[in-house]
Amino acid sequence: MSNIFSGSAIVAWVGAILWTIGLVFNANATQEKHGKSVSEVLQVPSTIETESGKEVGFQQSNQPHEDLDAVLWIQTSAEYGAVARQTFRAARAAVGDALVDSKWTASTEQKKIFDSKTDRKLSELPPAVVLDVDETVLDNSRYQVGLIESGGEYSPEGWKAYVEKQVATPVPGAVEFVKACRTAGVTVIFVTNREHDVETATRENLIAHGLMEKDDPDLIFTKYEKEEWTSDKKSRREELARKYRILLLLGDDLNDFIATQYHSSSEVRRKVGDQYKDWFGERWFILPNPNYGGWEQSLYDWENAVSSSTKRKRKREKMVR
Ligand SMILES: [Mg+2]
Questions:
Q1: Per residue in 92-103, pLDDT tens?
Q2: How far is the CA of 121 from the centre of ligand 1 (A)?
Q3: Cα-to-centroid distance, 291 and ligand 1 (Å)
């Protein structure tokens, strides 16, 4: 049993007090928007052939695009900002609870390690929160705009070119959350499926918006930075679980929270979501992403190489009638 005057307990209480102060005084952080046009963000071919045989810009064609409403919801609706801020505000309150409960962890991987016999106590580890980057703290909807205007599809090359421009803006509420964590002495760690070759661009983009500080150590864990760090984020959480007490996980995809035999069906994903329903809103906090993610790939069986029409056909079959 831990003594309330032990070193780790004092650290936890000091963290909790700083946390409360942060909640009172940290309400006015602001966000900055870049003023660049979509064409500056993403240079893509943007013509299509009309019925008359004449080529026009895709953006003038009024062709239907599956992502149009999703992108506009993120970029223009009051509702998106409200749900994002609501999530981060609830997460801030949860950090306060987690700091004073020395057995609290948000990582199933960490729970497994410390439930079995280990020489170290969970309470001895420094507290951390683990966040995904894309559509969790950075809004990349302008990349999606580029795809809509060009009629193109996601490609690793196009995505890399976009990331290197560092034009992503913060998700509403993210900056305030990160700053409150730092004020309370909680380490903020990013686990992202961006590739290691864009880590510097990612870091600069995060720093530009106050999501990281210039003198921060390497707290971005990218895909394949180590051989075993695959798209499935489990191996990265396992590594972090040995160094930090993971207070919360924040993301926009089930994979940001738990391994689900990574490429599983939508039915399996739903079951896992249901299984952990008590963790969401308590130690797991999820942001909406109606544009892309495991939810969408599972609809066409993770076969990214099939044609758009095959993807669309498989999606239509998944509708509940
Ligand atoms: Mg993401």
A1: 999 999 999 988
A2: 31
A3: 11
